[in-house]
């Protein structure tokens, strides 16, 4: 199965690396842009499968990138996850509920479980957009971005199950480790 391209537009290298580390490389190819202008260029050139967009960006804000996407019938179909550590700044420009705008909001910092849930939700919301034939298009618009496959949804569900099992295993190992430390402390007294 080919990797799905996810474009992460964020001025924080930490966030870009965190997303890269949270997603399995066999299923996702993470592309990066550190500002809004570079991000918009990459969206237009690469036509990523999904976009993760920080709201506060240098050179061109995430809101301006969002507005540009909304003006292009093809690009607005790409699943979108909007990220910010300041939700109030997002809601001052894009009122809730975000689902009505066919986007998902995640508050930074986020965990892998939240990211996977946001990806699934963004895929579902993008499928609810009206077909391109209903949206007036210009002759220069190329083929639409393919919608996510059921195989990918199944794979994400498998990954969530594995994550839950690993979290349980980690919790058990932490308890065992603590018991071992307590035992050693007791013997050293």
Automatic annotation (TrEMBL):
Q: Which SUPFAM superfamilies does this one have?
A: CheY-like
Q: Name one GO biological process term.
A: phosphorelay signal transduction system
Query: What sections of the sequence does the record tag as coiled-coil?
Result: 149-176
| Sequence ranges assigned to domain Response regulatory in this UniProt record | 5-123
Q: Is the Zinc keyword given for this protein?
A: no
Pfam (any one): Response_reg
Q: Provide the alphabetized UniProt keywords.
A: Coiled coil, Phosphoprotein
Q: In this chain, where does the modification 4-aspartylphosphate occur? A: 54
Q: Does the keyword Phosphoprotein apply?
A: yes
- Identification of the protein by name: Response regulator
Recorded source organism is: Pseudanabaena cinerea FACHB-1277
């Amino acid at each position: 199965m080919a990797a799905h391209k996810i474009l992460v537009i964020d001025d924080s290298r930490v966030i870009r690396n965190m997303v890269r580390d949270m997603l399995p490389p066999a299923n996702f190819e993470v592309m990066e842009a550190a500002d809004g202008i570079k991000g918009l260029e990459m969206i237009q050139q690469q036509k990523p499968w999904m976009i993760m967009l920080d709201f506060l960006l240098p050179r061109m804000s995430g809101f301006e990138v969002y507005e540009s996407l909304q003006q292009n019938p093809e690009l607005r179909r790409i699943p979108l996850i909007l990220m910010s550590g300041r939700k109030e700044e997002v809601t001052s420009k894009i009122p809730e509920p975000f689902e009505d705008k066919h986007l998902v909001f995640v508050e930074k910092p986020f965990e892998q479980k939240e990211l996977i849930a946001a990806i699934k939700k963004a895929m579902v919301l993008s499928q609810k957009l009206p077909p391109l034939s209903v949206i007036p298009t210009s002759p220069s618009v190329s083929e639409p971005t393919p919608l996510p496959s059921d195989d990918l949804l199944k794979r994400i569900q498998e990954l969530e199950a594995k994550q839950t099992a690993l979290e349980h295993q980690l919790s058990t190992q932490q308890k065992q480790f603590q018991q071992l430390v307590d035992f050693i402390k007791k013997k050293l007294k």
